[in-house]
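Form 12-C: Joint structure prediction
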Amino acid sequence: MSEPMMIVPLNTSDILKSAALRYPEQEIVSMLADLSVHRYSYAEAYKRSCRVANLLASAHLNQGDRIATLAVNHYRHLELYYGISGQGFVVHTLNARLFIEQLDYIINHAEDRWIFVDPELLPQLEALADKIPTVTRVIVLCAADQMPPSSNLTLECYETLLAAQSEQAIWPSLPSNTPCGLCYTSGTTGNPKGVLYEQGSTVLHAILSGGSQYLDFDEWSVAMPVVPMYHVVAWGVPFSAPIYGAKLVLPGCALTGPNLQTLIETEQVNQAFAVPTVWLTLHNYLQESGKGIESLAMVGVGGAASPKALVKIYAELYDVYWMGIWGMTETSPLATAANLTPQMDNLSDEDCYALQASAGKPIFGIEIEIFDAAGQALAHDGVTRGELRVRGPWVLASYFKGEGADSFVDGWFITGDVAVINDQGYMTVVDRSKDVIKSGGEWISSVALENVALDYPAVNEACVIAALHDKWDERPVMLITLRPGQAYDELALRALLQQRVAKWWLPDRIVVVQALPHTGTGKLRKMDVRDQYRHILLAE
Amino acid sequence: MSEPMMIVPLNTSDILKSAALRYPEQEIVSMLADLSVHRYSYAEAYKRSCRVANLLASAHLNQGDRIATLAVNHYRHLELYYGISGQGFVVHTLNARLFIEQLDYIINHAEDRWIFVDPELLPQLEALADKIPTVTRVIVLCAADQMPPSSNLTLECYETLLAAQSEQAIWPSLPSNTPCGLCYTSGTTGNPKGVLYEQGSTVLHAILSGGSQYLDFDEWSVAMPVVPMYHVVAWGVPFSAPIYGAKLVLPGCALTGPNLQTLIETEQVNQAFAVPTVWLTLHNYLQESGKGIESLAMVGVGGAASPKALVKIYAELYDVYWMGIWGMTETSPLATAANLTPQMDNLSDEDCYALQASAGKPIFGIEIEIFDAAGQALAHDGVTRGELRVRGPWVLASYFKGEGADSFVDGWFITGDVAVINDQGYMTVVDRSKDVIKSGGEWISSVALENVALDYPAVNEACVIAALHDKWDERPVMLITLRPGQAYDELALRALLQQRVAKWWLPDRIVVVQALPHTGTGKLRKMDVRDQYRHILLAE
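Section 2 - Result
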C-alpha cells in the first residue's frame, strides 16, 4: 500500500526559503568587527544563501563533506549555515576560542574540505597552514578590498566568489537523517568528540525550541544570540528565529557591556541569549554607566548554572524575565526551559526566582530522568541527586565516527551532570559528575557553594573545586574574584555560607584571586583551576 | 555507520503524557448533552486515556484496526482520540450529521471493528444494526445508570469498561508512518473517500498549527473548538492545545447562540474555532440579547469563505481578531492562515479585514501554487485565477485503499479549489472548481457574488449557483435568506451588486427562500441547491 501522507522531509533550506516568502522585509542586523552595523532582509539573506549553495554545487565535493566555518556572529556566517547545509553538506562550526592544538585535532578529525574564515581569525589558521591536508580552499569572509595578506595560505574572497553565482538555487530534497551540522564538544577530558546533527533533528529542534512557551518567537520578536554561532549553532536561534519571522541581531565579536547595551537599545532587542557571565558583565556596565535596557523583556540563560542573585537583579532592576535553559552540544541543544507560567503568579518572588534559576522542565519531545549508580530511576522530590540522562529526537545517539560509546545506555544519553528533579518536573543541575566533591563518601555540591557565595555582595565570581585531602579524600576549596568598591571579609562570607549549607560542606580554604579562567564560551575553566589548586590542602 | 541522532518518533500518546507532566492542573471543560458542565484536568484525562488504551490492548484486535467514534465534542471523545491512536489503532471519527446511507457506506468501507457512540446518537447506529458486520462491539459513552435501551444492538457501558482497567499504560513506540486517524471527505461527488492520518503527520501538524503565529496556544489560552471533533479532528485543536498547555473547552452538541455565549463568558474563552455560519449565529444572538463576549480575542474561521462584512463586525463590535484559515480533510487540515502581522498596523481597517477574510499565507512546512489547465504555474498578482494545489508533510499522498488517484499529480494534491495568490503570498479561494459559473466561456465567481450580497443589510445568507442556460451554457442564480426586521428591496441589492462586480456577472434571478440547506459541519449544501434550481432559467 502506498504511504497515506506525503513524504516531504523538512530541510534547513525550507527555513530560510519560507522566511523569504513569508517575512521578506524582516531584518537581520549584524555588528561587524569594525563596530559598523550591517542590515539586510530575510529576502536578501535567502538570495545570498542560494549563491553559497551554487558555489558549493559547482565544486568537486561529495554530499556529506564537511565545510568548516571559523567565524563569529554575523550575516555571512548565517548565509553559510543555510547555503552549506541546504546543499547537502555539513556545516562544521569551528570554535574560535580553542587552543591551536585542539583546532588542529578537530579539523583533521572532521576532515574539513573548505574553511570559511573571518579576517580577524585568519592567524589561527595560518598557524596550522601545513597541518591540515584535507583542506583545499580557504575563503575569507570579506569584500575584495578588505582581503588580508597571508604568508602561508592561498586565500579566496567570499564576496568575489558569491558575485559569480546565481541568486536562485534548486535545493535538493534531503532525507531527514542527512547530516547537516557538526560541532565538537569542548572535551574537558580526552579529545574533543564530534556531534553530527541531521536535517530532521535540526528543523524539529528549531520548530519546537523557537515556538510558544520556549523562546516564543514571532514577528514582533527581536532576538539577539550573544552565544556564539560556533557554540552549538548559537543554541539553534539562527534556525528557529526565521521560522517565526523574528528579527535577528547578530552581535559579532564585540561582546562588551557598552556594545551589548548599545545594540539592545538601538535595535530594540527584546530577547537575548547568553551564558550567565555575559549578564553579569552587562549588569556591571549598566550600574557603572547608569544606562538602561528597556526593550529587553527576556533573557535565555544556559551553559552554566544561573546564580539566583542575578535572576533577582534582572527582575527587579531591569524588569527582565530570566529563563533558565539547559542543554548540551549533544542535545542540539535545547532540552529543558524554565519558561514563565501562570502558576508563577501564585509564588513569592523568591520562589519564582528559584524556578527561573533552575534548568526548567523538559520541552515537548524530550524526556529526562535521574538514576543511581545501579541504573535505577530516582525520586522526583527536589532533593535526591542522580545522574542525569536524556532522550529525544534531537539527542545524540552516537558520536561522530562512533567514539564515546560509553555515554549511551538503554536508549538514553548519559549527560555527565548530577541533577535533582522536583515534584513539578523542574530539574536543577547540581554538579558535573566530575565536579562533585566526594568527602568521606558523601557528596558536596560545588555549584551550591558557588551560588551562596554569589549572594555575598563583594563576590564577583566564585569557583569551588575538589582538592585532595589526606583524611576525607576530597574537600572543597573556594576561589573568588572580588567586586570593586565592595568590602570583603572572609568571616562574613563564612557566616553566610554557614547559614545556608551543612557545616561539613564549608570550604577548607577560601582564596581571593585576581581573575578566573574562562572557556571561549564564557564558562569557568574549572579543569584549569583544579589543576592549579588540587594539591593546596596536601601542601599544608 | 550508526545514526547520529536518536530515532524517537513522536507519537500522539506523547502529547497527552507530556501535558499531564507539564500542565497537570490545566483544565478540560465539556458541556454535556444535558447542558451540565464537566471539568477535569490533563492529569485525569491522561489516566483515563491509559484506561482506554488498556481496554483495547486486552482485546483481540490487530494493530491498525479501525475503531470508530460517533460522538460530539466532550472529554470522553478526547480520551478516545488518545487511547485509540496511542495504542496503535486508527481512531475513525464518524460524522454524526451524515445520512444513514453514507454512514452505512463509510463504516463498511473502513471495516470498523468497534464503535464508541454517544447515547443521543445511538438511533443512527440502530438503523444500521444488521448492515455493519465488521463491527463487533458497540460501547456507549455514558455511566452505567445512563445506559439507554436498544432493541437491536448489544450495548456495553464505557464507564463500566474503563473502571476495570488500570490507569497506567505502557505505550508502544510507533514509527512515524503508523496510521492513527481516519476521516472521510464529505463526498459531494461520488462516494466519500477516506483520509488516513499518520502518527508523524498528526504530531507535526499539531506542533506547527498550535504554535506561535498560527493558533498561538500557551498556558494562558482558553481554546474552544466549536468545529466538531468528527470533522477533521476539530481542525487538530484536541492534539495541538495539550502540547502548549492551553485550557480546552469542548462545547458538546449545543452550538446555539446562548450556549456559546455562556461558555465563552463563564470559561473565559479567548480563542474559538468554527465555520462562518456559527459566528453569524452568535452575532445575531448577541445583537438580540445585548450580551457580550469580552474574553474572546481571536476566532479561527475556515470551512467556507469568510464574509468580509462579518470580519468587520467582529473587529468593530466585539474587538475580536478574525483569522481566516484554510485547509481540507486531505491537509490535516491547517495549510494557510491569515494571522495578525506587524504590517497590518500600516493598513487601513478595510484592507486589514480583506486580508483576514482571505485564506492567509502557507504555514511553515506547506507549499501552495496555482496552475492553469495545462499545468503551468500562474502569476501571484491577486487577480489570476488557477487550480490550487498543495504539498507538505501533513498533506495526503493517497486516499484510503488507493481511491481517487486523479487528485495527485507531480507530488501535489489537487484541491479542487480555484484560487488567487497575491504578491504578499496571501491566498484567496474564489470558488470550488465545480462552483464556478462558466458563462459563454468566461468564469463567474459564485463566492464573490455571495460576499457582495452579504454586505446588503437584509441578506442573512446567500448562495449562488450555476443554472443551465440556453445561450450562455450557465448563468448565475442567487438564493438568499433574509434577516428579520430589515427591509428588503431587490433593486437595491442589484444596485449594490452592480457597483462591485462586472455587469455580465449579475445574477439572472434572485430568489428569496425561507432557509438554505447546510451540511453537518455548517457549510451550505450547494449540491442540493443546484439540484433544485439548476433548471430554473430553462423553464422560463
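Section 3 - Comments
Chain B touches chain A through 58 residues (CB under 8 Å). The mean pLDDT of chain B is 93.
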